[in-house]
């Protein structure tokens, strides 16, 4: 059986901020097509910086970043943007425009990146995408009228509307109650199945990690300390690894 080529390949990734702040010290991560990879680690271990380096929102100091078989580190801005269009990034706070309605928030990326779309096509895409996250009734509401969980869903819908092949989730359940967190975790799985997405999920929420992950990597001191399934790591003989699962 032919070995699958990872859709995301990160090799020897280094990132420092100033002289004494080494955040990434040689991170190696591969993600296969269709996989949900959860990244765990204590605060400051470099989880969020890793995915920001992946899409070059933050420039790595050293290392290789290959996505869809293309090395990103030396791409010109226009070429990089073509790759970024295939990657959705769900920021921790949802990053909605407060002055725009839900409909306008979802229309914005389409108007910017799909200029060939008619108003009718834009409206159909908005309604279909809101249906997929269970929020069609909020289409004409303002972000200020939404709960935290609803804001996360709208942020996810705005990310999904361009039909990305890769999704990067930065703490998708932070600040949400247990029931809403579970709903967001279920939505992540639903999107993986419906849209065949490949995802990296940064989280501190072990219930989310257990529910959404096909595989988990744990960062420690700027490198990948260990990896495996939730069940494998939960039963690890390493006390530090097991401390995440208590």
Automatic annotation (TrEMBL):
The keyword Transport applies. GO terms for molecular function: ATP binding; ATP hydrolysis activity. Transmembrane segments: none annotated. Residues 8-246 form the ABC transporter domain. InterPro entries: AAA+_ATPase, ABC_transporter-like_ATP-bd, ABC_transporter-like_CS, P-loop_NTPase. Keywords: ATP-binding, Nucleotide-binding, Transport. It comes from the Bacteria. This is ATP-binding cassette domain-containing protein.
């Amino acid at each position: 059986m032919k070995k699958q080529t990872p859709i995301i390949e990160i090799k020897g990734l280094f990132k420092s901020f100033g002289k004494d702040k080494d955040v990434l010290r040689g991170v190696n991560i591969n993600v296969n097509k269709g996989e949900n990879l959860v990244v765990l680690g204590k605060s400051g271990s470099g989880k969020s910086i890793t995915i920001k380096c992946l899409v070059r929102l933050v420039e790595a100091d050293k290392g290789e970043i290959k996505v869809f078989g293309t090395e990103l580190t030396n791409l010109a801005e226009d070429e990089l943007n073509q790759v970024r269009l295939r990657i959705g990034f769900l920021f921790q706070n949802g990053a909605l425009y407060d002055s725009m309605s839900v409909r306008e928030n979802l229309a914005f990326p389409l108007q910017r990146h799909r200029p060939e779309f008619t108003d009718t096509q834009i409206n159909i895409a908005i309604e279909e995408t809101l249906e997929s996250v269970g929020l069609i009734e909020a289409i004409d509401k303002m972000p200020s009228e939404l709960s935290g969980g609803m804001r996360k869903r709208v942020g996810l819908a705005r990310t999904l509307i361009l039909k990305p092949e890769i999704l990067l989730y930065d703490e998708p359940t932070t600040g949400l109650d247990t029931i809403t967190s579970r709903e967001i975790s279920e939505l992540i799985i639903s999107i993986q199945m419906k849209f065949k997405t490949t995802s990296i999920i940064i989280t501190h929420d072990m219930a989310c990690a257990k529910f959404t992950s096909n595989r988990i990597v744990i960062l420690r001191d700027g490198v990948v300390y260990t990896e495996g399934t939730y069940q494998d790591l939960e039963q690890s003989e390493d006390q530090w690894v097991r401390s995440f699962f208590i």
